[in-house]
Specification:
- Helix 1 runs antiparallel to helix 2.
- The protein is elongated.
- Helix content is about 40%, strand content about 25%.
- The strands form two sheets. Strands 5-4-3-7-6 form a five-stranded mixed beta sheet. The protein has a two-stranded parallel sheet with strand order 1-2.
- The chain is α/β, with parallel strands linked by helices.
- It folds into two domains: about 70 residues, Helix Hairpins, CATH 1.10.287.180; about 80 residues, Transcription elongation factor, GreA/GreB, C-terminal domain (Chitinase A, domain 3).
- The chain contains three helices and seven strands; from the N terminus they run βααββββαββ.
- Strand 6 and strand 7 form a beta hairpin.
Amino acid sequence: MNKVPLTARGAEQLRVELHELKTDARPKVIKAIAEARAHGDLKENAEYHAAREQQGFIEARIRDIEHKLGHAQVIDVTQLDAGGKVVFGATVELLDEESGAEVRYQIVGEDEANIKAGRVSITSPIARALIGKQEGDVVDLRTPGGDRSYEILAVEYV
């Protein structure tokens, strides 16, 4: 089975979400199903069907998180020594050579990705292009808006 790469922060976020689903969301939906059942005929009971559908989503997410945590390869970014190369967990400062804009991204697992927070998935095109590169390298990337070139200004393991 393939390992699921996670930063320590990402693994903790999944544990918190799992705890919340098991201790809060699951009991609420079970209660909602019981209340909807008390209303009688289940075939035409929209509340019952909505609660059962919600229960399915919750149970699927619980299984998904448990699987990911069970197969997680938790990487402590602060302990990395990759010799200045871009690796999973690294924070990379880039210069867009066309616009002159600087951006910072941390390369994280799929569940941790949040572009607004500067975290990109290891499976994203930009992360795949950056992996193995180092400070001073120029990375060419094909984006929906056209081809872009980024210079790697810094690689940090924080």
